[in-house]
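User: I'm curious whether this sequence folds into something compact or stays loose and floppy. Could you predict its structure so I can see for myself?
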Amino acid sequence: MAILDLPMVANDRDMAGFRPFKALHHFKNLIADKEDTKQVFHIIEALKGRKPFAQAKAFIQSDVGREFMIREDGNPISEKLDDHAAWADCGPETLAHHYISFMKREGLTAAGLAEESYDWRPREERPDDQVEWYLCRLRDTHDLFHVLTSYGRDALGEAALLGFSYEQNQNLGVKFIAYAAARQIKKMSGTKAPIYAAIKEGRALGKAAAKLAHMDVEKVMREDINEVRARMNIGEPVIYRECLRILDSEGNTEERLLAPQAA
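Assistant: Here's the prediction. I'll summarize afterward.
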């Protein structure tokens, strides 16, 4: 069935969620094994609340949202982003060039992130509705967020980007992970770097910026990355970069920051 013909919200979709103890349980599991990304999806689901769905509905009902649903029917964002050959003619200053360089350097694919989410909840167990299309769009543009905001995949970069993302989508689970990760970094490193200020900065930047998950991916990939940042009002993460400098000067390695927490 075409996406436009699906119900906006399926009858079996849980539209609310606030289970803090469940979220805390899964965060402890994530601290014990930072590679277990399924825990992230559990936390986001446990604390999602209602606000993200209000935003999803508004975008789905918009002319732009409907245009994207038609265009992406059978051709999801993840497949477009992973088709590097389609962007081969893009110049060195384009978002496409920076995105592909980032994904190759980090050994990532958009499909890989999608599969991790399906490991958490298989496709056949997900509601078949337009909200699911929107949530997949949020997921599939995550690494574009990294490239456009300049936040790295280091522990603090991921946490600060989650602060940015919270202000973009209002999911309390995302906010919880951002601050819980900041607390863990502070605890494991004993750093003098203003870690919490970096999260606050990420939130401020996310609030000021246009909705990144609502962008026309096919269009912006071919544009100059700095022009995209300017048009979408994406500011510079100054405090985050200062934190990285301080952490490095203190000899705080990524391994130390993300060391498993003793039971």
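Summary: Residues 53-257 form one domain. Residues 47 and 172 are 5 Å apart (CA to CA).
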